[in-house]
Each structure stands twice: as structure tokens, then as C-alpha cells.
Design goal:
about 70% helix, single chain
Length: about 475
Amino acid sequence: MFDPFIAPSGTLLGLLQRGRGDGTLHALTAPRPEALAALNHCVVRDPRHDWQVENRSLYYARLFLDLGGDLDAIEAHLFDAEDLLDTDESRTGLALAVLGHLASYGRPGALGLLRRYAATGANWAWALDELALRDDDAGLRALAEPVLARFPEGAEGEAELAAAVRDAFEPRPWRLWADDPRPAVAARVRAAQETGCFDRWQRQMRPAGPRPDWSVGAVLAWAQEGLERGAALHVPAARCLAAVAGPEDRAEIVEAARSGDDGARCTALRYLADSDDPQALDLIEGAVGTGTAAVVDAAVDAFERMRGPYAVDRARGWVHRPDALGAAAGRVLACRGLAKDSDLVLTALREAVRGEGPDAATLWTLVDGTGRLGIACAAPVLRHIYRETASSHLRGRAARALAATDPSFPAGFAVECLWDCEESTREVAARHAATGDHRVVERLRRLAADPAEEAEVQTAVRSRIGPDAPAV
């Protein structure tokens, strides 16, 4: 899936794509056709850079209800001919998840579209998972035959069916079908369930990889073999070294970290860093200067895992480096630095935004560290990240950092965060939003009464409007 085009943050489409609370607030005051067009654009062209972790479905479903939108655009997207050509679940996953929430809210037509798509669509397993949470037994039983028809009779079809049953996220439909009164349905599903259980047992009985009785050299060789096959195994290999290596093996591991093959070098660096070996920091610095890209990445990652005071001291010296190790040093100070490191962390934050933009991966840690250290003068940079990032997770981290650093947050961004797409951001807002704004009290009450809202958010809301809370 290609990276989506994200509209400017000052536009209605850009706000909705980012999942910002202001997106909902602006959509509710915009001309209804314009708001629905932007909303449908987001649902059928998933705007998330990481669709597996960022939330949008409940956010869009709530706005569908508030705007009274129809489901024609979602239906056309799901049953377009492209569904036969592009079977990647990311193409239709967001639309199906939105339909699932709409079905939970009792939106007419949503359940029917999910049933139709589960019977005929390419991403049927996702639709079935949505139905497993929301449909009744009769509706699910009616899907047994069209779903089973996807798997032809024969060894290959039965193997595919067993894999589908074994990997199902929601097992409820399969359990229903295993007890189906139609013998042909029940027999196939039960056989698939038994095969799936047997497959798991076989995998457990044939573990791959190193054993505790392997030598250090064998573990390092295994890591190198994996790298040559395209599999980075240095992390599990380092854990294995922790089980098999003794004091007498240290010299061999240090030499591997200094000049070994890439797989062995990555493994040795990780092991020495996790062990807080006194030579680890020098070896990491040498690896960054002489190693391949894979070795540099492993060395930087190993350094960031180190917890001792020597690592923090070295980070203070490395933070000015214009390379990956300098960026990692900024993140180490953000995580484990002291108040005296605030200026270094703030400088790293500003340089990351200036050099890489508001979506830089390094910002996640730096933003957290800014909040942890309470760097008040970082608020303007944090506000910029909050407004411009396309990542709803990074925006949520910026909101938490602003809550710790910006006195204007409760009456400012915290208000719109009550409508944010991420539940963790709504939780922050529920704890901090100033109730002088009449929209805040109304929104808190609505969140408290919404059965689709996350428990953590409702707990935060109750702390503001419950019987023991200060009056709002």
C-alpha cells in the first residue's frame, strides 16, 4: 500500500485524515455535503501511515452518525471490481471497521453490508470478525455455507480452511458452525479445528533455532546464517548468548563485536550492551564508524537499551554528533537524562523537526522526554508537532507532553482532544480539559454514556463528573 496523500492541516480534509478533534468540530459546522465528501474520502482512502496501530474507525463512525450520512460511498468501495484485484486487507479494513461500529450503534444498513461482504468480498475474514462481535447467531449461521464454499473440497482446500479457522481473530462463528445442525457444515469445521490444533502441536514439538547446549561460536554462526537468508536474528541470538556464554567466552564475544561478520557483530553488540559490559560503549562507537547499515542500526539500538549511568554520560558527549548515534544520544537523554539535560533534549527536538519534519520517527521519544523533563519552553515546538503530524499516536504523545509543559493546554488543545481519534488522547483530555467551555461538559457526559467508549476514557470522565468529583 502506497503512503497516502495527507492534505494540509488547515483544511477540513487534512483535519479528518489526521483524526484530530478539530476535524469533527469543523465538520459539524461546515456545509453538510462538503463534510460528508471529506469523511467518505477518508473512509475509502485510508489516510493512516500505520493502519495496524492507529485508530480512526470509531472516530469516523461517530461523525457519520452526527452528520446523518448514508452508506452509499462505503458500499461502492467494498463492492467495486477492484476488490477482486487488490485483496490486501488494508484496502477495505477501515471501511469494514467503520461499519462494525455503525452496526453497534444500530445504524440501519450497516449489518447488512457486513453480511454481504463476508459472503462475497475478498477481505471476508475481517468482515466476519466484525460480525462475530455484533451479529446474532442466526445471522452468523446464514454465512456458514458461503464462507465454506470459498474452500474447495480436497486436500488443498481443507488445509486452507484449517489455517483460516486456526488464525481467526474472533472464534465465535467457527464455534457456532462446529455445532451447526447441517452435518456437512459441522463436519468440515470440526475437522478444520482438529487440524489446526494438530498443527500447533507439531510446531511446538519441532522448535527451530539454537539450543542452550550450543557453543558461543554456534550461536554467532546461526545469527550470520539468518542474516544471509534475509532474516535478522541477532536479537534472539543475543538472548541465547545470555544462556550459554560464560566469563571465559567474553574475549570471543568482544572480538565478534569488534570485527566479526555482520550477523555475529550485531549479536555480540546486543549481548554486551544488555550485559552493561564496560567495553560496550566503545565497541558501539566503533561499529557506527566502520560497520554496514545493518551493524549501525543494531549498534544504535543496543545503545538505546543501555540503562547504566555510563550510557547517559556518554550520551551527553555524543548528542552533538550529526549521525545516527547522535540522534540516539538525544533519545537516551530524553528517556533517562536529568533536569540538567533539558537544553540538550530541546535542541535535539528542534533539530529533528527542522531536519526531518513533524513525522520523524525520532520525535516519539523526544516528545515523551520533553514532557518527562517538563521543558516549558518546548511548548511552541510541541504545538507545531501536534498540529502538523499525520500520526495520531505522535499527536497523542504531543498532547501528553503539552499537558505537562503548557499552561494553556487545558483551555486550548485539550478541548479538541475530547473528540480525538485515539482513546489515549481522549483520556488525557478528559483529565485536563477546562470545564469553562460549555462544549467540554456536554462532551464529557456523552463519552460517559457511550457504550463504545474505552473503559480508561470513561474512568477519566468519571473522575471529572462523578459524585466525588469537583463540580463541573
